[in-house]
Write a structure and sequence with these properties.
Blueprint (H helix, E strand, L loop, with lengths): L7 H11 L4 E4 L5 E6 L3 E8 L3 E7 L1 E6 L2 E6 L2 E5 L3 E9 L6 E7 L2 H11 L13 E5 L2 H14 L2 H21 L4 H5 L6 H14 L6 H7 L4 H12 L3 H18 L4 H7 L5 H12 L3 H8 L13
Helix pairs in contact: 1-3, 2-4, 3-4, 7-8, 9-10
InterPro entries: Homeodomain-like_sf, HTH_AraC, Tscrpt_reg_AraC-type_HTH, Tscrpt_reg_HTH_AraC_N
Pfam families: AraC_N, HTH_18
Protein name: AraC family transcriptional regulator
Length: 306
């Protein structure tokens, strides 16, 4: 009979401890969250905004992309390969044995850097990557997730170690046989221009940016630029702009800025548009996010924005 990989019991205990109630539970580290369900539920519309890892530690789930369904459990992990809409269904859960999982959204700049380092050199017809794949869960991935969960709840480790562990997870996922199609999609020659464009976006995200302007800066046609950007970063150029803005806004909120002030400073013309985007990305409105994750400590105590 199949056994979960080494370290799985430790991961299960950690997720169960930090997910005492049903629904999505965000951690102090952006892009890492838990899910708990005490009973099966029917199809729920979901959206991936970047490359994303989902690991079930107890129970069973299914992700559906139209007629294509991918079931997975404690022996397998699901990777969403980029922006995608899908339906998720919890197949196995009970109050005595709840469905428990951990999700990790991979930063596009880390994905791009890793894919460029691992890109296959062969030239030929490049397949369009599937929206998701399921692969066998192994001890190195489980071990990295255990270390990540432990790190995100310690302020010093959250700042120093958590980003390094996320990079390790990205490396292990993209090095797998199942991710070969993603590596083949990165063609030699365009990497430097895409990375240059990403750096420009990070430096100028609060200004008005368009695909046409970004493509012109790196001497590419808009259509070719958008296609190559998505292949390397696993998100569209304008989705990456939004990613950078929202993460900068998140830091401003945790430093005490009001939602309207954060929206204005990161380049949103509409506070309501900002609130919709923020809730879609982080799961809760800006004010609630700040309230949940701002440490309730004396003013003299040192805190970390996470």
């Amino acid at each position: 009979m199949d056994q979960p990989p080494r370290g799985h019991a430790d991961l299960l205990a950690l997720v169960a401890r930090h997910a005492p109630g049903e629904g999505r539970i965000d951690t102090p580290y952006p892009g890492v969250w838990f899910w708990r369900a005490d009973r099966p539920f029917a199809k729920r519309k979901s959206e991936a905004l970047t490359l994303q890892l989902a690991v079930v530690v107890q129970g069973r789930k299914q992700a559906s992309f139209g007629a294509h369904a991918l079931p997975y459990d404690a022996f397998n992990y699901l990777v969403l390969t980029g922006e995608a809409e899908f339906e998720s269904t919890v197949l196995e859960a009970s109050p005595e044995r709840p469905y428990l999982s951990i999700g990790v959204a991979m930063p596009p700049d880390v994905v791009a850097r890793t894919l460029i380092a691992l890109a296959d050199s062969e030239v030929g017809v490049v397949e369009e990557p599937v929206p998701a794949f399921v692969s066998r869960l192994d001890a190195p991935i489980v071990g990295a997730l255990v270390r990540l969960v432990e790190a995100v709840f310690d302020p010093a480790e959250r700042t120093v170690l958590a980003p390094l562990i996320v990079e390790e997870i990205v490396f292990r996922l993209l090095r797998s046989d199942a991710a070969a199609v993603l590596r083949r999609a990165v063609r030699r020659g365009d990497e430097a221009r895409i990375q240059e464009s990403m750096a420009f976006i990070r430096a100028h995200a609060a200004t008005r940016l368009t695909v046409e302007e970004l493509a012109r800066r790196v001497a590419m046609s808009p259509s070719h630029f958008a296609h190559r950007f998505r292949a390397v970063a696993r998100v569209s150029p304008m989705r990456y702009v939004k990613h950078v803005r929202l993460h900068e806004a998140r830091l401003l909120l945790l430093r005490g800025a009001r939602a309207s002030e954060a929206a204005d400073r990161v380049g949103y013309a509409s506070a309501s548009h900002f609130t919709r985007d923020f809730k879609s990305y982080f799961g809760v409105p800006p004010a609630e996010y700040a309230r949940r994750l701002t440490p309730q400590e004396p003013a003299s105590a040192a805190t970390s924005p996470g």
